């Protein structure tokens, strides 16, 4: 009897302490430049990221097969990454992107929870040439591992007590200075910063949320928009249904505005966090920028201001 009990205890301890599995994927999405990147370059970058020493301190890295590489190249979407990670029995997935922002190029990486589609950590760097990107791997991987280890550890301790935050797509005025692509990139960077700050469990824009944004046109009820992030059984928009997940507690909405007509610099980047259950404003702030290329640094500042909450109402469970 004692030996059986000891075996059970050992199994529980082993399960609790098992190393999370991380799938590191090649580029799944990007810009015009991504189409010009040879497939083997994207796969080489993924290989280098997977072999960064910092990654092995916290994750068990899962190798990517040629079939999976081919599937990702054809689909190049968030949902294909999650499907791939499930196929590999991964707990988390690391995705990398190359995106244009104005006349600059950004390379950014995110780590997401495969089951919940929660953003765990994110980081980015500006670059001029593709050959610059590998120079960032060591510092980016080190930061991503530090942030993800902290966030995952916190979730294991107090998962039900960390409020959830849906990140809405940045609203932009009709302007020659800012494109829809710029809005998408800045939304992702905002989500990255909010996740890295650790106050909320963050759910950024994904394929599901893109569809929800189009469906609701920014005019839907906050709770409906938040539900669309997770995908409820009754939601006609959502392509994914996640079991046992409550709707978001908060939603972060942001917009770019200008006092000029037509809109031109300087621009204000406004952000606010709303408590969905009470439909009330919790905190809001703004920063200013002149060129969209300078916006990422301002996004980081705004995220820090919005994360300065000293008290957050506990989520109803």
Structure description:
- With about 325 residues, the protein is α/β, with parallel strands linked by helices.
- The protein is about 40% helix and about 20% strand.
- It has ten helices and ten strands.
- It has helices at about 1-15, 30-35, 40-50, 65-75, 80-85, 135-160, 180-195, 205-215, 220-230, 295-305; strands at about 20-25, 60, 90-100, 105-115, 120-125, 165, 200-205, 250-255, 265-275, 280-290.
- The strands form two sheets. A five-stranded mixed β-sheet has the order 2-1-3-4-5. It has a five-stranded mixed β-sheet with strand order 7-6-8-9-10, sandwiched between helices.
Features of this protein?
single chain, 317 residues, alpha/beta, five-stranded mixed sheet, 10 strands, globular
- The number of distinct helices, counting runs of at least 4 residues, comes to 10
Low-confidence stretches: 4-16, 207-246
Q: What is the approximate shape? A: globular
Order of helices and strands, N to C? HEHHEHHEEEHEHEHHEEEH
Biggest sheet features? 5 strands, mixed
Count of strand segments = 10
Topology:
Elements: H1 2-17, E1 21-24, H2 32-36, H3 39-50, E2 60-62, H4 66-75, H5 78-87, E3 92-101, E4 104-113, E5 119-127, H6 137-158, E6 164-167, H7 180-197, E7 201-203, H8 207-216, H9 222-230, E8 250-257, E9 267-275, E10 280-289, H10 295-306
Parallel strand pairs: 1-2, 1-3, 6-7, 6-8
Antiparallel strand pairs: 3-4, 4-5, 8-9, 9-10
Helix pairs in contact: 7-10, 8-9
């Amino acid at each position: 009897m004692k030996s059986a009990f000891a075996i059970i205890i050992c199994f529980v301890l082993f399960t609790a302490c098992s190393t999370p599995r991380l799938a590191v994927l090649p580029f799944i999405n990007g810009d015009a430049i991504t189409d010009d990147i040879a497939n083997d370059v994207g796969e080489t970058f993924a290989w280098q990221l997977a072999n960064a020493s910092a990654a092995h301190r916290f994750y068990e890295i899962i190798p990517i097969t040629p079939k999976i590489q081919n599937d990702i190249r054809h689909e190049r979407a968030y949902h294909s990454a999650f499907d791939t990670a499930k196929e590999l029995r991964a707990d988390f997935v690391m995705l990398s992107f190359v995106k244009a922002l104005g006349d600059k190029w950004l390379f950014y990486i995110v780590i997401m929870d495969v089951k919940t589609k929660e953003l765990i950590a994110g980081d980015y760097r500006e670059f001029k040439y593709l050959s610059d990107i590998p120079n960032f791997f060591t510092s980016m991987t080190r930061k991503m591992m530090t942030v993800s280890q902290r966030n995952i550890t916190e979730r294991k301790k107090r998962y039900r007590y960390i409020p959830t935050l849906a990140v809405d797509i940045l609203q932009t005025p009709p302007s020659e200075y800012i494109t829809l692509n710029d809005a998408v990139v800045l939304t992702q960077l905002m989500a990255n910063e909010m996740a890295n700050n650790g106050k909320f469990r963050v759910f950024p824009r994904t394929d599901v949320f893109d569809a929800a944004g189009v469906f609701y046109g920014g005019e839907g009820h906050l709770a409906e928009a938040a539900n669309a992030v997770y995908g409820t059984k009754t939601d006609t928009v959502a392509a994914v249904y996640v079991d046992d997940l409550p709707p978001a507690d908060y939603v972060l909405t942001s917009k770019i505005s200008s006092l000029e007509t037509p809109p031109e610099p300087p621009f204000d980047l406004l952000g606010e966090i709303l408590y969905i259950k009470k439909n009330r404003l919790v905190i809001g702030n703004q920063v200013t920028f002149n060129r969209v290329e300078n916006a990422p640094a301002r996004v980081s500042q705004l995220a820090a201001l919005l994360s300065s909450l000293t008290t957050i109402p506990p989520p109803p469970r």
